[in-house]
Fold this protein.
Amino acid sequence: RKEVEQDPGPFNVPEGATVAFNCTYSNSASQSFFWYRQDCRKEPKLLMSVYSSGNEDGRFTAQLNRASQYISLLIRDSKLSDSATYLCVVIRGGANNLFFGTGTRLTVIP
Amino acid sequence: GAVVSQHPSWVICKSGTSVKIECRSLDFQATTMFWYRQFPKQSLMLMATSNEGSKATYEQGVEKDKFLINHASLTLSTLTVTSAHPEDSSFYICSARDPLGRTMNTEAFFGQGTRLTVV
């Protein structure tokens, strides 16, 4: 089983829609969780960290469910500029244990 | 500003030549750096973990003699693609974390990536 699993999509949604991505992780010892955004031909950039209590940044909400071992990203009121690949990253502990999901491709349609 | 700098951002080389890619941590010392490869419309694939002062750890299927990694200092790791062939054309990205970050929840920082085209 992969350390981190993500639905690759693609997700094609109309502008203004709400879309949610999930990412599951296999190791319960995982400690830190992040969502990254990657635009075409660019490096991934941190979108937001995911805290146990959940966190929100504008139209973006991230949540962590340790019992079920998944994290989620909710995007409200989708904009055309949200079109990108969203990567789930899990860190188990220590600098060596960094795991990526395959990324979920989102396209927001006018 | 960038905390991990990668150079060059793009390179075109002839088949059979070698190409060196540099990855530098600017604001911190990175004992570990990660090298990834990404083909078009595919996800990041970890190639190897670069360890300062010791041998790199390669992922299964990655040829260590073809992809030479040197992590000679705490701020610099290099990836050399030896005897490059067209199938090595890809987007190569390095990453590092700050092991002395303020909290355990320190994210990974990525270099800008290097687009390699072998002709």
About this structure: The mean pLDDT of chain B is 89. The two ends of chain B are 33 Å apart (CA to CA).
